[in-house]
Amino acid sequence: MQRWRGLEDIPQDWGRSVVTIGSYDGVHRGHQLIIGRAVERARELGVPAVVVTFDPHPSEVVRPGSHPPLLAPHHRRAELMAELGVDALLILPFTTEFSKLSPAEFVAKVLVDKLHARLVVEGPNFRFGHRAAGDVAFLAEQGTTYDFEVEVVDLYVSGSAGGGEPFSSTLTRRLVAEGDMEGAREILGRPHRVEGVVVRGAQRGRELGFPTANVETLPHTAIPADGVYAGWLHVGDEAMPAAISVGTNPQFDGTERTVEAYAIDRVDLDLYGLHVAVDFLAYVRGMAKFDSVEALLVAIADDVKRSRELLEAYEGE
């Protein structure tokens, strides 16, 4: 998959293409429907499928300080899009100047002049241009002028997790913030992932016999509610079953919120300085302060046992 940052990166001889535009944070199942349809139509038409997205998130530029928690960094979104068959990813730097483009200017500069769109595939609530004034109806009108079609893909409605709401990044962020990892997984189509570099912490886990990878998460990451979770610690191509702690470590009067993953039965790992990923499968228990270190050790042993059981059950599904 080709990756471009800015309009100037698009090859001069780029031909017609099928395009879809959006933030696509998380590339959840609703996004997968739209992107998948764009890829399908591109194959039918014999042209490349292009995803257009933005960095930073538009809300941060339009309303500074409002950057939403991110479900996936750009490199992870690119990996997921490539798996769906996308041919090229265009990341547009979202600046104050760019935010002032009218819907018509956006169509002309991006879709027509640079990507030579033959077809644009979007969800029903797609908005674009200055003050989000453009919608799919306006896009279709522009298509008649510039010779491209517009296809609208209705999003599936989520099940029990969302209470009947359409799949959305906003809903997924809420579920993650609540610690509902099963609900988030239902929308994402996979466990929620947090990434970052392993840094040195207080090393109390090592002293207690349960060494953890203290993950310095990427900026604006959507981090689950405080508690203990079952999941996986990914180091390179290896995925290790893990018990994961999120919180301030109240047992030792901590103040900084951390994400720490214990790779079950692995006490031989030296991960400092490595970029790792942590997948959250299921909530085990809330964060608590125990009467003694001995009581904490009993709880950790039970956390590991419960995490192992949850992971084995999931892999047996």
Automatic annotation (TrEMBL):
It catalyses: riboflavin + ATP = FMN + ADP + H(+); FMN + ATP + H(+) = FAD + diphosphate. GO terms for molecular function: ATP binding; FMN adenylyltransferase activity; riboflavin kinase activity. It comes from the Bacteria. It holds the Pfam family FAD_syn. The keyword Flavoprotein applies. The keyword Transmembrane helix does not apply. Its EC number is 2.7.1.26, 2.7.7.2. GO terms for biological process: FAD biosynthetic process; FMN biosynthetic process; riboflavin biosynthetic process. InterPro entries: FAD_synthase, Riboflavin_kinase, Riboflavin_kinase_bac, Riboflavin_kinase_bac/euk, Riboflavin_kinase_dom_sf, Rossmann-like_a/b/a_fold. Keywords: ATP-binding, FAD, Flavoprotein, FMN, Kinase, Multifunctional enzyme, Nucleotide-binding, Nucleotidyltransferase, Transferase. Pathway: Cofactor biosynthesis; FAD biosynthesis; FAD from FMN: step 1/1; Cofactor biosynthesis; FMN biosynthesis; FMN from riboflavin (ATP route): step 1/1. Residues 187-312 form the Riboflavin kinase domain. Catalyzes the phosphorylation of riboflavin to FMN followed by the adenylation of FMN to FAD. NCBIfam families: PRK05627.1-3, ribF. Belongs to the ribF family. This is Riboflavin biosynthesis protein.
